[in-house]
Amino acid sequence: MTTATAKSVSPTSPSSALTKFVVASRYMPVYLAMILLIIVSSIWVPETLSGVALSAIAPFGALLAITALGQMLVIMTGGIDLSTPGTLTLAAMIMAGVGQQSDGRIGLSILTAIGVAALIGLVNGILIGGLKLNALIVTLATGQIVVGIVSRYVRTFPVQSAVPRGFSDWTATRILGVSPIFWIGVAVTMFFVVGLRYTSVGRRFQIVGANPVSANVMGVRVVANQILVYVVASVLYAVAGVALAGLLRNPGVNIGSPYLLGPIAAVVIGGASLTGGLASPFSTFVAALFLTGLNQMMLALGLATSLQFLVFGLVIIGGMLISGDRIIKGVEQVLRERRKPDRTKPDRNDDSLEDASSHG
Fold first, then answer.
1. Which CATH architecture has domain 51-330?
2. What residues are paired with 175 via a beta bridge?
């Protein structure tokens, strides 16, 4: 094999490294934002970076990450899910209603919450993936239906009923100084990191999101994947709802409200492609921690609720402006400009032709 040929097939060739750089660049803003948040917090509110403060907000960051991972899977198929708050709230209320404050009913409560959530996801999946209805409208409608079901369901047991004490005590324990809820979030994130990158199922799923037509030609069951993703997403919302109920002990009917835009913001800031296909579970996890830390910093600064909403909205808009798709286009434009030949310099071939004609 010649040297030129070896270079062309080398896995570390410049073109391969350049491709990796372009793909990785879409995920850089979230890490820069996290560094900036740490710097600002250390200057203005250093108490938010103490061990006690970090261990207190870590489980809530993990809960946002778990819901964001579900939203990420949906967005990877080119869809969106607005039924998150209702599904999460229903799962939390099931923990209180089915649990009946009895430790012996913890397992039944969790299974019921996950099963009901999976059913909600199945309905979304069939309507969107099977019947090809608009994901925004369908999930908004099912979300409202679920909210109505929650309002009706909570009348069947005492208001502000607590979840089983054994479960709430478990969420309050510490593993390496942090609630086990945080480590569940880490485990779920690592599961999707490995699953999407290193398994054939995960790679096929990304193909479905990036180009469903090509995936269908390749024999991938596109509709089945689209239905399954809404089921998995709803199960993740239920997991977050169950865990949140344990942390709060007495869940209310409005606990899911912050999880409408939060997960979407985390996915966008995490660099996911809004047209489907590309996303990073780990970057999404970091984005969720960033948003949780930002919220904690604003609370520590004593900002009015209106200003908190303002800052949060600006962050979401900023995430859209520097989304992964825009970064990719910007990097590709810069590379194209650099590859253009410089017309101000004479072409060596033209010079040689002129010399040859003068001597002819």
1. Orthogonal Bundle (1.10)
2. 178
